[in-house]
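[job 4471] stage=fold_predict status=RUNNING
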Amino acid sequence: MTTERRDARSDVARDVRGYVVVLFATSTVFFLVGPLVGSLSEVTRANVPGSALAVVCPTVAAVVVARRTGTGAGLAAWLTTPPRGTGYAVLAVVVMPVVVLGAAALGGAVGFAWPGPEALLLVVVFLIGALAEEVGWTAFLLPRFLRVAGATASALAIGALWALWHVIPDAQAGHPPAWLVGHALATVMLRVVLVHLTVASSASVWLAVVGHAANNVAWALSPDMGAGYDVWMTGALTAVVAALLTAVAAGRARRGLRPRAADG
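[job 4471] inference complete, writing structure tokens
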């Protein structure tokens, strides 16, 4: 291993450790206060616990560590760079709603709330929440992992951390252990999808934000205000999409096409 490679791994490990420490330290406050707040369903339609207000913590962690390490300009670049590629933008909007709808149909669930004024409010709410998260997961963590690993490996690592961070709020929402495991799978697979969309389009946070929000809106509109959301079927279908995007990325690499995020 070259000195440059060792230095890169050391820098990445330092930044990731700092991010994780700040993320969970700040999130713990919301995890403790969340049960006192109760459900946020009046705003989100679906069963979202008060501890989900920890959605701001990935941004807090990213900004704190970026300031400490003098990498704020890189973080800002991921927020100000527009995505490229209309096809990937369309996928970011539609792929997860199609997956959630397909999972519901295969599971026999009925009663989706179709788009209307309520859905427009949900779009705004979940776009804000997705941005707050993706500043951390995509704009901060992703470029660091890409320095030392490929897109899929980076996505799996970030996805595992993302899934772990969701466990306490999901448990506080009253979900049983089997649901928590299924949701963890779906969460990791969703991260693979979001990372491949991001890497293929540009060094930009925005397709991850849109794809993340689209998934949450589809979940909130699913039957029984999200209660009809089939985590295992959704996870399986998301894994299929993740595998397809991984195959496309591998094909581009074999043809010598450079991922657009690598040009950023």
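[job 4471] summary: The chain has a mean pLDDT of 90.
[job 4471] exit 0
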